[in-house]
Amino acid sequence: MNEQWIYQQHQQYFGVVAAGLEKLAGDELSQLGATEIRPGYRGLHFEADVKTLYAILYASRLLTRVLAPLCKFDCHSPKYLYRRAAEIDWSSFIAEQDTFAIQAITSHSAIRHSRYAALTLKDAIVDQFRDKTGRRPSVDPRNPDRAIHLHIERNRATISLDISGGSMHRRGYRAVSVEAPMQETMAAALIAVSGWSAERPFLDPFCGSGTLLCEAWMRACQIPAGFLRKQSGAATLPDYDDALCLKVRQELNGRIQVPKHVHIEGQDIDFEAVAAAQRNLAVLPEGDRVQVKQADALKLKLSTATEIVTNPPYGLRLQDRSGAGSLLKRFGDTLKQHCAGSRVTIYYGEPAMSKELGLRPTKKHAISHGGLDGLACTYELFEGLGNRRGKPAN
User: How does pLDDT run across 160-177, given as a tens digit for each residue?
Assistant: First the structure.
């Protein structure tokens, strides 16, 4: 193999992102200093020098993983995959005492099954260790020390090292959670879609364990997404520069500042959810300044124009056994009658449910997450809206 890997030769990397968030993630990467950003399968290709790479790994709110490509080659058979993989000196990335895992994706290729492709690559790695030392690292698919990614598309293979340090959606503030918590990257994306800035009050009336509140607070205070992570995922690279990484983190931490007049508030009808949100917020710098209270979203009354961003419960929990209609319909009536001048952004895990709100969205944003094709809708609550007959959303 070449003395240098692709990421070293060309400073090229790949950011994994949920479908529908490519534009937002591309803007974020550009703001963090990345260049030559272009779409790829399930994410974005980009170029970044080492300092910028460390900043992306520490500060990105939307990427779930970052991959550093090692090599690319034509691949028409498992035997050739094994042979090319065996040419890599895996001791540069994995120690005998380490555990590792392989994620493989195949499409439109002679090797049709991703599991078989992953098994072939795994065999090449462990056989190399056995031949050299008589011992081999173990496979741990859940919590590996090293993660390797294999992508084969149209018989073209790319082997990459996952340098995320685990999924980047795990911020570290979720000490407690309640039923079906929203993933952190999804919450950050919903806030970005809303267009909220810290100058306007922020409210989540169905806050659950507070993921949206935590993400709003981190965004308002410029707290890096990786602030609570102990170590950078880049430490898995053989050319990792610990001093530079520490300097980048210190520079980004130096920008943390709590705006004087920021107002972020959450509420939930469930007392346990309120307690969980308060505990999670307390993990963040001055996060206890976020107000969380027990309240019914259907009794919401706002006197100030507010940014409402929320992910209401759905499924069985939406059904109102009293026969008064769905929770979403009643919430829509509340918004029309008591929240004039505000703006609302709602994420629907089931897009068809957006029609139940009884409001016409001014903006829609499709987002795929966890195998679900969700939808984020933004609504402008104009003055006098509650006096009109509500029109169903498209």
Answer: 999 998 889 999 999 887
